[in-house]
Structures are given as C-alpha cells and as structure tokens.
Specification:
This protein has 194 residues and is of the alpha/beta class. It is 22% helix and 21% strand. The strands form four sheets. Strands 3-7-6-11-5-12 form a six-stranded mixed β-sheet. The chain has a two-stranded antiparallel sheet with strand order 1-2. Helix 2 packs across helix 4 (179-193). The longest helix is centred in the last third of the chain and has 17 residues, at 134-150. The two termini are 27 Å apart.
Length: 194
C-alpha cells in the first residue's frame, strides 16, 4: 500500500487519506483542553501476530475472548486510539482528534496528568521484538505532519512514547522504534512543506 496524501480536516478532526472506522470508545475532551501532545504506542493482537481484525475488534469492544487465550484478559477493556498504522502502512482512524480517545490510561507528561485529555494517540502495529516497517515510518511521519499542519496547537507538540508518559507501567512503542529515523523523517517532511 502506498501512502495517501493526508490532510486533517480541522472542522471534523478526521484525516483525509485515512480509512475511517469510528469506534464507540471515545468521549468529549474536557472544556478548554488544548491538543498539544502526540503519543506513539505499539500493539499486536495476539502478541507477536500481525494482521487480522483483533485490534479493531478491541477498539470496538467486540474482541472474542474465546478466540485466543490472551484475549480473555482484555475482555472488559474499553480502549481506543485516534489512529492505527498497520504494517503495510495503512492508516486507520478510530476517533476524531477533536474527541478524546482512551489510549494513555493513567499518565502524566511534564507534570500534567490525564494525557488522554490533551493528546492524540497513534498506535503502530508492532511488538517489543519486531522492527517497524519502512511503510510504517513513512506513514507515521506523514500523519504527524498532517496533524501538525491541521491543528495549530500541535505545530510544536512533542512526540513521545506511551512508556514516557506511563513509565514502569507501559513499555511501548519499545526498543525497536528508531526515534532518530522518525525525527529525520519529520524534519524532511517539514522541509518539503516550507
């Protein structure tokens, strides 16, 4: 799959060029919330397996606990993210960036708690052992660039990992994410936009 041209609609919070699959696990951001943080995650369901519908099923609350032993522990979870970047580079949007997705849980960034209130969550399909794909890096950079272009509050927003806002509790996106490569891709995208 090639990268689509991505453009955030600031009125709807939806990304043109993404596949929209809006899930029920979302709610309104608190009044006055400034969307000012980008949080990267990694997810594979079951762990170490890629593809299939399990991630979307989790975000919709329809994950079948009998389908895999690991799924039993997730049966009562109500989670989501704004975006998922699949291994082939497909970008799926589950929640408008104008709404709160339930991706960060108990979290804090620079002394400010409740990161769900003011962040955008991007899940990368991956695990703690498998390197992310070229297409994932390209699409993640394209998505972050489109988010920064579409929402003024994100223009200088930091990009952090889930492990940075929930240390000791969360490991993702993990050691296999090449932060220098991501930063270089974002810098190249920024140069193209000038």
């Amino acid at each position: 799959m090639t990268s689509e041209v991505l453009r955030l609609n600031p009125n709807t919070g939806l990304m043109d060029g993404a596949r929209h699959s809006l899930c029920p696990h979302r709610d309104a951001r608190p009044p006055g919330s400034d969307v000012s943080l980008l949080v990267l995650h990694a997810i594979s369901l079951p762990p170490g397996e890629f593809g299939g519908t399990a991630i979307e099923d989790l975000f919709y609350g329809r994950l079948d606990p009998a389908a895999h032993p690991y799924f039993r522990r997730l049966a009562d979870l109500r989670v989501s993210a704004h975006f998922l970047v699949r291994r082939d580079g497909e970008l799926v949007q589950f929640v408008s960036v104008l709404e709160r997705a339930w991706h960060a849980g108990e979290s804090e960034f620079r002394g400010r708690a409740a990161c769900n209130d003011y962040s955008v969550g991007l899940e990368l399909e991956g695990d703690a052992a498998t390197p992310f794909t070229d297409r994932q890096y390209n699409q993640t950079c394209a998505a972050i660039t489109a988010l920064r272009d579409g929402l003024p509050s994100l223009r200088s927003a930091p990009v952090v990992g889930h492990s940075d806002i929930a240390p000791g509790r969360k490991w993702d996106p993990g050691q296999t994410l090449d932060w220098a490569r991501l930063a270089a891709g974002l810098a190249r995208a920024g140069e193209r936009d000038k």
